[in-house]
């Protein structure tokens, strides 16, 4: 028996809609974590369906923006406690901790890799508490918007766990080492206003306006040339770990490709026409 395979099969066999996908138009979609009775904790069904949903959307050529949010009162409570209890009880069986590693890497890590590597812009619309791995999902997105009811919950320490699936990377780059350590060690819930002040979310809006705020960003993204979004996202993400010289070199190699596009040529001609007028 394999705990990983058992959990994966349970997730694949689930018949309820743990993740809902709504296509608002050809260029945008909303992905909703849809187990509000469990505060959208990351059950097997939710994880499997979320990975599938992101895979499918990433393959849609016309899609530009994915909004990720939660149903009900929470964005996501993080890891499913029932799954954690099962993992603890079975840790000595079969593959031991390797099974846990396979789930964390394949399912939790699968989500953040899809968010980071797709050429779509992914906007987190944090409608309530975002804890543990749910917080990691929100911080991995290209923009993180928060309603006034949002809370960022570093649940790792009180459970005897560590920042996971990219959280340590995101926190140290936004808060510095000491700020990230304090966030972990204190374990205090941050409200939306404080999270914005610290740079962990980009914008805070009234709760009922959260999705409208995300759609406004989708409108802005829709105005970008398709190649500009697809090229800028990996460039900016890569620059976070590059030296100044390395970032400069990436930009120097990328920019000439933009000169070959019809979008750039049309923009230059329009600017020249305005100067003549």
- Gross geometry: globular
Helix-strand category: alpha/beta
Please report the first level of CATH classification, the CATH class of the largest domain: Alpha Beta
**From the coordinates shown, what is the CATH architecture of the largest domain?**
Alpha-Beta Complex
Report Rg.
20 Å
Compute the number of strand runs.
9
Q: Indicate the low-confidence ranges by residue numbers.
A: none
Q: Helix-strand pattern, N to C?
A: HEEHEHHEEHEEHEHEHHHH
Strand order of the largest sheet: 1-2-3-4-6-9
What distance lies between the first and last C-alpha atoms, to the nearest angstrom?
75 Å
CATH superfamily of the largest domain: 2-enoyl-CoA Hydratase, Chain A, domain 1
Question: And the CATH topology of the largest domain?
Answer: 2-enoyl-CoA Hydratase, Chain A, domain 1
Count the domains.
2
Would you mind describing this structure in some detail?
It is a single chain. By secondary structure, the chain is an alpha/beta fold. It is 54% helix and 15% strand. The protein contains 11 helices and 9 strands. Strands 1-2-3-4-6-9 form a 6-stranded mixed sheet, sandwiched between helices. A 3-stranded mixed sheet has the order 5-7-8. The relative contact order is 0.11. The mean pLDDT is 88.
């Amino acid at each position: 028996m394999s705990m990983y395979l058992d959990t994966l099969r349970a997730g694949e066999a689930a018949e309820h809609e743990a993740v809902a996908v709504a296509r608002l138009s050809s260029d945008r979609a909303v992905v909703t974590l849809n187990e509000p009775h469990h505060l959208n904790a990351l059950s097997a069904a939710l994880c499997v369906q979320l990975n599938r949903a992101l895979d499918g959307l990433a393959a849609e050529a016309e899609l530009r923006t994915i909004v990720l949010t939660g149903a009900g009162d929470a964005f996501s409570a993080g890891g499913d406690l029932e799954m954690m209890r099962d993992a603890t009880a079975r840790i000595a069986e079969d593959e031991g901790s390797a099974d846990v590693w396979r789930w964390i890497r394949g399912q939790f890590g699968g989500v953040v890799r899809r968010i980071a590597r797709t050429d779509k812009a992914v906007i987190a619309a944090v409608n309530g508490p975002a804890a543990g791995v749910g917080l990691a999902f929100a911080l991995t997105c290209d923009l993180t918007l928060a309603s006034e009811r949002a809370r960022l919950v570093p649940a790792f320490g009180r459970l005897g766990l560590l920042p996971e699936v990219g959280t340590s990377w995101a926190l140290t780059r936004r808060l510095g080492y000491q700020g990230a350590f304090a966030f972990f060690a204190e374990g205090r819930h941050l409200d939306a206003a404080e999270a914005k002040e610290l740079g962990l979310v980009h914008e805070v809006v009234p709760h009922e306006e959260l999705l409208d705020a995300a759609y406004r960003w989708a409108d802005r993204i829709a105005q970008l040339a398709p190649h500009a979004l697809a090229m800028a996202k990996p460039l900016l993400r890569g620059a976070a770990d590059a030296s100044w010289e390395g970032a400069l070199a990436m930009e120097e190699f990328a920019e000439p490709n933009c000169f070959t596009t019809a979008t750039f040529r049309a923009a230059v001609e329009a600017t020249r026409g305005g100067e003549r007028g």
